[in-house]
Amino acid sequence: MATYSEIMKTDSLKNGEMKTVNIGDKEVLIAKVADKFYAVQNLCPHMKANLAQGKLEGMILTCPKHSSQFDLMDGHIVRWTNWSGFKAKVAKGIKPPKPLATYAVKIEGDKVMVQT
């Protein structure tokens, strides 16, 4: 049986906002898009940048360090760095593309709950 932890109230974030919370030993980014909450790992799998300092455009989260992009819906990679050519090939060889870990979210009344 899945266990959920309350992490905030539904009115804690406005649409288009993000916030980092700690759930056990995990640093989780919570984002609100179109009145729906999403939870993903906060550290970029490329260079461990703080994704909460990145840019959120709709469902696309852009890393503040090398502009890697991820879809909040399922964590898939939209773009792995903004590098091109030889530099991009080397970077992919050293640090292969990896999607974001995502966490199930549910709403109970005015509580945002994340699966732990």
Topology:
Blueprint: E1 4-9, E2 18-23, E3 26-33, E4 36-41, E5 55-57, E6 60-62, E7 69-71, E8 77-79, H1 85-94, E9 102-103, E10 105-108, E11 111-115
Antiparallel strand pairs: 1-11, 2-3, 3-4, 4-9, 5-6, 6-7, 7-8, 10-11
CATH architecture: 3-layer Sandwich
Low-confidence stretches: none
Q: Assembly state here?
A: single chain
Structural class: mainly beta
As a percent range, the share of helical residues equals under 10%
Folded structure, characterized:
- It is built from 1 helix and 11 strands, in the order E-E-E-E-E-E-E-E-H-E-E-E.
- It has 116 residues and is mainly beta.
- A 4-stranded antiparallel sheet has the order 2-3-4-9, with no helix packed on it. Strands 5-6-7-8 form a 4-stranded antiparallel sheet, with no helix packed on it.
- It is elongated.
- The termini are close together.
Q: How would you describe this structure in keywords?
A:
Rieske Iron-sulfur Protein, mainly beta, 116 residues, four-stranded antiparallel β-sheet
Task: Summarize this structure briefly.
With 116 residues, the protein is mainly beta. The protein is 9% helix and 42% strand.
